[in-house]
Specification:
Blueprint (H helix, E strand, L loop, with lengths): L1 H5 L7 H6 L11 H15 L5 H26 L9 H10 L7 H17 L4 H7 L2 H26 L8
Helix pairs in contact: 3-5, 4-5, 4-8, 5-6, 5-8, 6-8, 7-8
Length: about 170
């Protein structure tokens, strides 16, 4: 069955290539985790950006992601196939809004984002079940990123030493 879905996408198609997280979503186990990991080099590339530029990149990744994920899901003929991981990449960018990117925040932010994305607490789970198309695929991960971001801000504010743990 997995091969049937994969036969409907091509890594030569730039929309599919991006939606599948540069191929990271094709990993047969934990594709969401591997998609989130694929965001790390992109985050590191954006490390020197000003806050407004980082916000702009995050917004572009999020808005473009609606199209990328929706089109790829349509092509696969599956609502939200696990291999579509652009939503995780955009969610990781949301996680680090207004935060310094250090090894410590990167690790903690990654863990927090994965927890919210996997556990899907309210309202993430509701959105995941009720919204369809590219918007539905993207929105639950953007909310998971926002929740991880809020938790990371609390950690950094209450325990500034978090910035230098590793």
């Amino acid at each position: 069955m997995q091969a049937e879905f994969r036969a409907r996408v091509s890594m030569k198609n730039p929309v599919h290539f991006l939606a599948l997280g540069f191929g990271s979503g094709l990993v047969p186990v934990m594709p969401g985790t591997f998609g989130s990991l694929a965001a790390i080099p992109l985050l590191l590339l954006c490390m020197g950006l000003s806050t407004p530029s980082f916000i702009a990149v995050t917004l572009i990744a999020s808005v473009v992601g609606i199209y990328l994920c929706g089109k790829t899901a349509d092509d696969m003929q599956v609502h939200d196939h696990g291999s579509i991981v652009w939503d995780e990449i955009a969610g990781m960018f949301v996680t680090f809004l207004f935060l310094p990117l250090t090894a410590s925040t990167l690790v903690l932010g990654f863990v927090l984002f994965r927890l919210f994305d996997i556990l899907k607490p309210w309202p993430i789970g509701v959105i995941d079940k009720r919204l369809h198309g590219g918007t539905g695929i993207m929105l639950d991960d953007l909310l998971a990123g926002a929740m991880a971001c809020a938790c990371l801000h609390i950690c950094v504010t209450l325990y500034p030493a978090v910035l230098t743990l590793f």
